[in-house]
Amino acid sequence: MVKPLLLSISLLANILAIPSEKSIKSEIKEVTVYQSGAQISEKSSFTLSPGETVLTIRGKSSYIDSKSIQVKGFGEFTILAVNVQSNFLEEKANSSKDSLISILDKEKSNLLRLQAQAEVLREKMTVLNTNKNLGGQNIGLSMVQLKQALDFFEKEITSIKNDEITNRQNTNATTEKIQRLEKHLNENTSKPITPVNDILIKVSVEKQVSGELSISYLVNNAGWFPKYDIRAIDISKPLQVNYKAEVWQNTGNDWNNVKLKFSNATPQKSGVIPELKKWELTYARLTTFDQNIYKNTGFVSGMVTDSEGLPIPGVSINVKGSAIGTVTDINGQYNLTLPSSAQRLIYSFIGFRSKELNISSDLMNVMMEEDMETITEVVVVGYDAIVGRSPGLQVRNSRPQTPILSKSLDIETTSIENQTTVEIAVDKPYTILSNAEKLLVELKKHELEATYQYFAIPKKDKDAFLIAELVDWEKYNLLQGEANLYFEDTYIGRTILEAESLKDTLSISLGRDRGIIIEREKIEQNATRKLIGSNYTESRAYKITVKNNKSSEINIKILDQYPISIVSDIGITLLKSANGNVNKDTGVIDWILNLKPGEQKVLELAYEVKYPRKEKVILDR
């Protein structure tokens, strides 16, 4: 009798040791958005009875990085473990699917009405056919009565036949629409189910308590890109820079009325210092290079589709090695301004294999393949019973003080400069839906003192470019990004704000100014070629004309060049430089001109090249 009693006590103890379960709700309060990914901060409150309880927060994003989860507790309880597990049984809300089902139901109801209308028309035709024997066989009709009867039948039958044609066309169109909708829904249904994540927090209490949880974790499928509006009213006033964040998210959870922070941190990148390996030099014929022969024109656009040709909204497109990027719109289309150094684009979207492609054209349409191996597994991140603090899990018995953020007069944001990162906190709450649509959030407005200078390289481009040069620009914590340009209240195009420059002065191109006319022409009569002894002597001369058609005085810097010899047998003599500044090491000549309204100036450049008669040189390029 002793053993059965001990066994019963043991079983009873095990049953009593099984923790109870309780579902609790958690709301997203703050989001720190990185250029790839975001950190979500949530709050939850609960009341518990004595014992161990597993608190379950359901329906969280399937893109949670389970290694990043942190939980802080406030109250007289102990957190024993934190688990993240996938839930394939709870269907994630899909507003687009619900919308399609609603449209399908409406079209089916419409089809039933059309079928009923067709039946009524058939009945009307039957009634007419039954009564088409005008007055019977033994009753004669006058000509007037006969004509009236014929007109009646003609009118009614014509009306019924026309209604039948319209009904048939509407029925066919509705049936075709229903078939398309059903096919689309069936295709979506056959795709792998994307689970949601449940967060399980095991706690222990000694008496009934009320407590709160603060939960944070990293989530993928979200990000932001720096964008700018740069306005120059005229060259006598400060430059206006409007700093914005283009934020997007497709995490599966809407961010409703949350506080936003935008960070330049990259938590997804490795923090390991790179290793400098041995450089093994071999012959050139055995050396391979990854060469991109396409000349970057500064702009690229296209469409991203899946293997079935359907557009994919929310695909992230990044210029490799920079902060420049964008996401595809609802139609899978994108357009992007490129920095001059851009060579490769990275296309990424959860559930599809990432693609890294050379920039090979102004138009790049990309087809992405589904990554069938990317299946969210049940991930358990557990911790031993703790009192105090453990890596990845924090418990607090007192509330942290909320930092007070100062407010800007123009836009309510606060820059927070940490040891290695910079964050911009937006005081105004925002709602960002999980639909991959881009939302522009204004961060800062700056008025920056700038010096303005026109530049032109007529050998390459005959237009004059206005450059704004900024000093002390580092203190504004700007990031490299696309910028819309406005000059004299007119939109003039887009450029790249190269905020990752190592120079003390930041130059911002404000685009082309058509009010300055520049011509560069070759003086043919001075283009000579003479054979003297064993050497040829060739001459080239150019005339550069600059005219200011603007109503204000301008300063403009003109650049040109003459060739520099790297072979001892080739001799080069600069004949004319129009008093320009000559760099004998590079062959670059620059002229700084001051032009009043309507004024025109002419510059002349000439040089002579001597080389062996058995060789050839290319002077016209």
| CATH architectural group of the domain at 518-612 | Sandwich
Spatial gap, N to C terminus: 107 Å
Number of helices: 3
The CATH class of the domain at 518-612 is identified as Mainly Beta
Mass-distribution shape:
extended
Q: Tell me about the largest β-sheet.
A: 7 strands, mixed
Overall structural class, as computed from helix and strand content, comes to alpha+beta
Strand order of the largest sheet: 5-8-3-2-11-22-21
Poorly predicted ranges (pLDDT <50, ≥5 residues)? 5-16, 375-411
How is the CATH topology of the domain at 518-612 named? Immunoglobulin-like
Number of strands: 36
Describe this structure as you would to a colleague.
- It is built from three helices and 36 strands.
- The protein is an alpha+beta fold.
- Strands 5-8-3-2-11-22-21 form a seven-stranded mixed sheet, with no helix packed on it. Strands 28-25-24-32-35-34 form a six-stranded mixed sheet, with no helix packed on it. A five-stranded mixed sheet has the order 23-10-9-26-27, with no helix packed on it.
- Strand 13 and strand 14 (about 325) form a beta hairpin.
- Residues about 5-15 and about 375-410 have low confidence and may be disordered.
